[in-house]
Amino acid sequence: xxxxxxxxxxxxxxxxxxxxxxxxxxxxxxxxxxxxxxxxxxxxxxxxxxxxxxxxxxxxxxxxxxxxxxxxxxxxxxxxxxxxxxxxxxxxxxxxxxxxxxxxxxxxxxxxxxxxxxxxxxxxxxxxxxxxxxxxxxxxxxxxxxxxxxxxxxxxxxxxxxxxxxxxxxxxxx
Length: 174
Prior knowledge:
By secondary structure, the protein is an all-alpha fold. It is built from 10 helices and 2 strands. The N and C termini lie far apart (59 Å).
């Protein structure tokens, strides 16, 4: 027998998710112990694992209920419908990608001043960073993601010579 917490952990869920599944009837009501604690058996675990497999495939809880409530339910039909929905969603996302790429072709957007070095420094200071802490932040950024550090400094519209100086100092840990 499993408690709520043990069963949920075994299936990679939170306790709350398991209780929710029970409250909406996706999981059958648990048996109760003498102390009125919920107790789940092996069959409950198998059902919950199956529910999790369908959730991992992106099925909605209502679709999972349709499959689970019918002996040998129309899993194939539900999965095929979800696959078609995913294809449509992917098509929409690809169209968004193309629109973004088209927008990014405009040189004016690449040079847009959304944030400057001065603004960034003032934000960091407002958050309580000292100059020494900002230098450590740059050093860690340079150590762990040098290319992204370069891009970030360019994003702040810092001149190339100054970017080179910041990165050199960051590598030295200054």
